[in-house]
Specification:
Blueprint (H helix, E strand, L loop, with lengths): L2 H5 L5 E2 L10 H7 L15 H21 L6 E4 L2 H16 L5 E5 L4 H12 L3 E5 L9 H7 L4 E5 L13 H11 L2 E3 L13 H4 L3 E5 L10 E5 L14 H4 L7 H39 L3 E3 L10 E6 L4 H10 L2 E2 L15 H5 L4 H4 L2 E5 L6 H20 L10
Parallel strand pairs: 1-11, 3-4, 3-5, 5-6
Antiparallel strand pairs: 2-8, 7-8, 9-10, 10-12
Helix pairs in contact: 2-10, 3-10, 4-5, 10-14, 11-14
Length: 398
């Protein structure tokens, strides 16, 4: 890829919306006044600060409406990772006198995995739930894992790599019956499928703006009223004395506008993306031998296409697609620098050599049928070329 094309993402076919999304013009327009004209600190009492406070309250209502929550149950954070950390650590610390047992799936986002591992070093015990070949957590396994001292269940709503949508409503009912707080990471599912905190039955739900065409560095945590949760950051009394730090007003306004647009456009965009997704899945399956779809065909996010290709390395696929002007991923953006195979694919029972040959294509607002057709033209040739030089792929075995 030339330096010019690297500098201008508008010249490429962008298919990595699970990693991040561009800020929508409407979102940027809503944010701009709060960088200079309406720059006040919302914690102050005078009119300039009051205007910022009013804008924050409006954004809080917009985010609450997207997930079916009450306005006072939304707390702004720096993004999904902070929200996950706060939810898991905050619940564990608040409830440690009740017990020290946490239940988590093996396919959680690293923001949850690493947080749970950190808590294990502090004396908490984590039961790691297996998943089936499609990446699904069994509600029965969740119920069986609950002992006498559980304090938190954490199961991701929709996996960030393979896109499988977990049975959170069933898990939520089990958690409620047993009196256990439920945390579910909805960072990837928000804006792509309906997310309603009452239907999910969760106590804690993280939100990230940059996954729904908002700015980076801002997010939120839904905290159901009555949920026990310790502070994550200490200092002032911002965010109803739950999370200290001067508020990122411009970012919050951007998150609010992005949430409003996501709610209004959800039904139409879900249908459109599902059609593109299915066309892409069908085309790859028909044109490339030894290509395995990761996760279920239909119980997945409408924008997620994830395949494993026998005999090739994911890194090689990504680099060749990049040269052809296609941006894609071989797994989570959070772990793109590691050579280790995906923990999600390994948990699903994929062998190491198969997990290394993964490709994630995630569609978004800018994508069209022409983008899908471009992938279906370029990808089969790419896989064929890589297999021709791969010592791992023996054509005689086919």
């Amino acid at each position: 890829m030339t330096d010019k094309r690297r500098a201008d993402a508008g010249n490429v076919t962008y298919l990595d919306h699970a990693a991040t999304t561009p800020v929508r013009p409407e979102v940027l327009e809503a944010m701009l006044p709060f960088f200079a004209q309406k720059f006040g600190n919302p914690s102050t009492l005078y009119s300039v600060g009051a205007a910022a406070k009013e804008a924050m309250n409006a954004a809080r209502a917009q985010v609450a409406a997207l997930v079916g929550a009450r306005t006072q149950e939304i707390y702004f954070t720096s993004g999904g990772t902070e929200s996950d950390n706060w939810a898991v650590k905050g619940a564990a610390c608040a409830l440690r006198e009740k017990g020290r047992h946490i239940i988590a799936s093996k396919i959680e986002h690293h923001a949850v995995l690493e947080t749970c591992r950190c808590l294990e070093k502090q004396g908490f015990e984590v039961t790691w739930l297996d998943v089936d070949g499609d990446g699904l957590v069994s509600p029965d396994h969740v119920a069986a894992a609950i002992r006498d001292d559980p304090i938190l269940i954490t199961v991701i709503h929709a996996n960030n790599e393979v896109g499988v949508v977990e049975p959170i409503p069933e898990i939520g009912r089990i958690a409620a019956q047993r009196g256990v707080q439920l945390h579910t990471d909805a960072v990837q599912s928000l804006g792509k499928i309906p997310v309603n905190v009452d239907e999910l039955g969760c106590n804690l739900l993280p939100i990230s703006a940059h996954k729904i065409y908002g700015p980076k560095g801002i997010g939120a945590l839904y905290v159901r009223k009555g949920t026990r949760l310790n502070k994550f950051m200490h200092g002032g009394d911002q965010e109803n004395r739950k999370r200290s730090g001067t508020s990122n007003v411009a970012g919050i306004v951007g998150l609010g506008k992005a949430a409003e647009l996501a709610r209004l456009e959800l039904d139409d965009e879900t249908k459109r993306l599902t059609a593109l997704r299915d066309r892409l899945i069908d085309g790859i399956s028909a044109s490339i031998p030894d290509a395995t779809l990761s996760g279920p065909r239909h119980n997945r996010l409408p924008n997620n296409v994830h395949f494993c290709f026998k005999g090739v390395e994911g890194e090689g696929i990504i680099l060749r697609l990049d040269h052809a002007g296609i941006c894609a991923a071989s797994g989570s953006a959070c772990t793109s620098a590691t050579l280790e195979p995906s923990h999600v694919l390994l948990a699903m029972g994929r062998p190491h050599e198969v997990a290394h040959g993964s490709l994630r294509l995630t569609l978004g607002r800018s994508n069209t049928q022409a983008d899908v057709d471009k992938v279906l033209e370029v990808l089969p040739k790419t896989i064929e070329q890589l297999r021709a030089i791969s010592p791992l792929y023996a054509t005689s075995d086919q």
